[in-house]
Structure formats: structure tokens, C-alpha cells
């Protein structure tokens, strides 16, 4: 089958439009899921507090922004320390309870809650206080708090 110039121009135009459309559609498709679970959890969760030293408790809204769910996230699943400096860091199954004590939640900026703990490795005499910005590693995924390594229990 052969095409004349007008036909091939139309086909070329269609291919261009399809490419353009898929290019334009990409950001639109990517945004909703990113918005649903990459939000700063503090902006969509309320009454964040630390319980039993290592559990983050908060009431988080679903993607609709209507229903609040009570979340309890065990930070041992995603927070640990740098073993050479004893500084808090994000780590899958970091088990911070093995190294840290005196943990508290700073609320100086309510939209950016900060974890504050004294941590030490077995070789060190005393703990070193350091902080971790929780909104940089914890997400509200449609009402459920998640972090790399952990997911909250609801209720
Ligand atoms: C965000 O949601 C998508 C789709 O539901 C999922 O594949 C992805 O793992 C989630 N990311 C995080 C950080 O929860
Ligand atoms: C969220 O809104 C959608 C559409 O309005 C509805 O079908 C769904 O049940 C809502 N989910 C919750 C958890 O309220
Ligand atoms: C959020 O969860 C509800 C059930 O609690 C579900 O009906 C809805 O589809 C979910 N929304 C998204 C964006 O995942």
C-alpha cells in the first residue's frame, strides 16, 4: 500500500499528536498517586505524638480528606542510626530502640515534626542527641502512615 503526500502528512500529524498527548498526559497521570502518598504527613495528620518511646501515633485523613484514621507507626521499622556517628537516620529495619533513648517529638514547627533522641553504639559511653525531620521519610498514604520499611497499624 502506498500513500500520497497528503495521506502521509496526515499520518505524520497523527503520530505527532499521539506523542504529544502521551507526553502531556504523563504528569497528569503521575501526580494523583504522588499527591496521595508523598504529602508531608503533618499537613494531613493531626495530634501526632510519640508513645512508648518509639511509636508515632497520629490521626491521618484519607485521600478524600474526610475520614481521619488513628495510626500507630513503629519507628523501629524505618529509623536507625549511623553506627560511626550515632546520629539518627532513615534505615529500613533500623531498630532505633536498640541504640536510642530519651526520644521525644519536637513541635516547634507543627508542620515539620522532629524526632529527638539520645543514641549510642555499644562502644560508646554516653548517648549523643540528634534529630530527624519526620516529614522527610514518613508519608500519609490514603490515611495510612508509611515509611521505607514500615506501615502503620490502624485503629
Ligand atoms: C505510593 O502509591 C503508589 C500507588 O498506590 C505505590 O506504588 C507506592 O509504593 C506508594 N509510595 C509510597 C512511598 O508509599
Ligand atoms: C472517597 O470519595 C469517593 C468518591 O466520592 C467515595 O466513593 C469513597 O467512598 C470515599 N472514601 C472514603 C474513605 O470516604
Ligand atoms: C482510599 O481508601 C479507601 C478505603 O478506605 C478507598 O475506597 C479509596 O479508593 C482509596 N483511595 C485512593 C486514592 O487510594
Automatic annotation (TrEMBL):
Superkingdom of origin organism: Eukaryota
Domain Cyanovirin-N residues, every copy: 40-147
One Pfam family named in its UniProt record: CVNH
InterPro entries: Cyanovirin-N, Cyanovirin-N_sf
Keyword set, alphabetical order: Signal
Matching Gene3D superfamilies: Cyanovirin-N (2.30.60.10)
Signal peptide: 1-30
Protein name: Cyanovirin-N domain-containing protein
Species whose genome carries this gene: Cercophora newfieldiana
Amino acid at each position: 500500500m502506498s500513500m500520497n503526500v497528503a495521506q502521509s502528512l496526515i499520518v505524520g500529524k497523527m503520530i505527532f499528536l499521539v506523542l504529544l498527548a502521551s507526553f502531556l498526559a504523563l504528569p497528569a497521570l503521575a501526580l494523583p498517586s504522588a499527591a496521595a502518598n508523598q504529602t508531608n504527613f503533618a499537613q494531613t495528620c493531626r495530634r501526632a505524638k510519640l508513645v512508648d518511646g518509639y511509636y508515632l501515633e497520629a490521626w491521618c485523613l484519607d485521600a478524600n480528606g474526610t475520614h481521619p484514621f488513628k495510626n500507630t507507626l513503629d519507628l523501629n521499622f524505618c529509623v536507625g542510626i549511623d553506627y560511626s556517628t550515632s546520629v539518627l537516620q532513615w534505615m529500613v529495619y533500623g531498630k532505633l530502640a536498640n541504640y536510642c533513648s530519651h526520644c521525644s517529638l519536637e513541635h516547634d514547627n507543627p508542620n515539620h515534626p522532629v524526632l529527638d533522641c539520645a543514641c549510642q553504639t555499644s562502644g560508646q559511653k554516653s548517648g549523643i542527641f540528634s534529630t530527624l525531620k519526620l516529614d522527610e521519610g514518613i508519608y500519609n498514604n490514603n490515611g495510612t502512615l508509611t515509611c521505607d520499611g514500615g506501615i502503620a497499624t490502624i485503629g
